[in-house]
């Protein structure tokens, strides 16, 4: 499994992904699931992937035209005029790769090879945008009502984002929120694993404003993981107490 | 879907279940998923059910021998010498009911009609016990390492139980913890719904020590739901802040 989150804040985009891939529980590896392309001062585009690893790697390789000689490669999404076009291109690629692999494997391939993708970025002259792509190639865009997308093992880490999100929060607080969400997920599910890739894209910077890989010995991750337990206990004890008398029994 | 949790504390058992059943999103109903049988001063046994409603209702009906005349009914689990025997009996019943229905429907029935059950209780002279039954009829028992079981839509509400559980906590705090876990789940998933059924079985009481149905306008549920949001935000802001400078960038 996988866990990736993309979040839109007033000040920019905050993205985080884990790096664990597993086929069963005895075949785990570390693979990067966050990929970035940028033209400094003009555009930045980052994708995060969940699902079949051969599929998602094929999407990234074909975007970069790695089948061609290095000198002849041309990345279509670096030419797309809008983020909407970028999402359309990647969606088409994703659907085609899945369909090809499924058809090649007939009945055995049905329902396999699927993947989901989060696309985040900004092109000069336009707003920062965030999309979630489905295996069918279609996609939805984040809005004021739904300002974040999760893919992969999404449930454990969802309640804290729902409760903690605030569009006006600082980018640093956005990182803090996602770190807590990932920590909750890691504590409950073996298929999501460290290290985590973090990326922050400040509005109108058109570049990676900050990126960092959090490993198990990362001091910030460790401090969140240990203090969140205490903070939650404190929060819990601050709640009103239940009384067995309340309903007259 | 469904959400039920059973938790063993030093002082007794705390159980909570939701009441929503749905077939699609446009066919929702309220059904009780918590059932209790007791012989005052001798034993108390409570089951909570998740999965196919016809299956779980059949289990409860057959336990109570509702196919017989009222005067001839005899509930086998009220005679079982140990909680282990109770779990074995109910497990056998569950497996047989599922198998019968699947066989009667051939290929179309495969994988349908399944259900899971949590069994909690205490028989005089023995410890309070908690079991989780699988559709295959086998079961596991809670231990010091794994002192709670969840069935149904378990993921959203799991991190807070992992973080908040303490075997020594009061039964009232156990209720508070489960209320928070259910609130997190309700906020994130439509297939789990109010009202909630709560039951507390104090150690060596051999009876229902407290039970309560929490509806949407229950003052305690409302106070937890609203103050948990604030408490979480406060906990979140008490955490160490992230700094973009930390890794020297």
UniProtKB/TrEMBL annotation, chains A, B:
Domain of life: Bacteria
Pfam families reported in the protein's UniProt record: Proteasome
Protein name: Peptidase
């Amino acid at each position: 499994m996988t866990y990736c989150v993309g979040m839109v804040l007033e000040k920019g985009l905050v993205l985080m992904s884990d790096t664990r891939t597993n086929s069963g529980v005895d075949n785990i590896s570390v693979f990067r699931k966050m990929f970035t392309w940028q033209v400094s001062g003009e555009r930045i585009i980052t994708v995060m992937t969940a699902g079949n690893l051969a599929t998602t790697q094929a999407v990234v390789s074909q975007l970069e035209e790695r089948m061609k000689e290095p000198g002849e490669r041309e990345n279509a999404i670096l030419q797309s005029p809008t983020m909407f076009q970028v999402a359309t291109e990647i969606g088409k690629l994703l659907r085609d790769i899945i369909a090809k692999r499924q058809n090649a494997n007939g009945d055995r391939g049905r329902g396999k090879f699927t993947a989901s993708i989060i696309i985040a970025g900004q092109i000069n002259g336009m707003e920062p945008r965030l999309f979630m792509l489905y295996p069918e190639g279609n996609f939805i865009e984040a809005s004021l009502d739904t300002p974040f997308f999760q893919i992969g093992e999404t449930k454990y880490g969802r309640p804290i984002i729902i409760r903690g999100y605030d569009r006006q929060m600082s980018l640093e607080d956005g990182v803090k929120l996602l770190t807590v969400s990932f920590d909750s997920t890691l504590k409950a599910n073996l298929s999501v694993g460290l290290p985590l890739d973090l990326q922050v894209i400040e509005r109108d910077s058109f570049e990676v404003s900050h990126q960092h890989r959090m490993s198990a010995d990362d001091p910030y991750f460790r401090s969140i993981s240990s203090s969140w337990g205490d903070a939650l206990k404190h929060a819990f004890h601050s709640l009103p107490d239940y009384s067995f008398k309340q309903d007259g029994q």
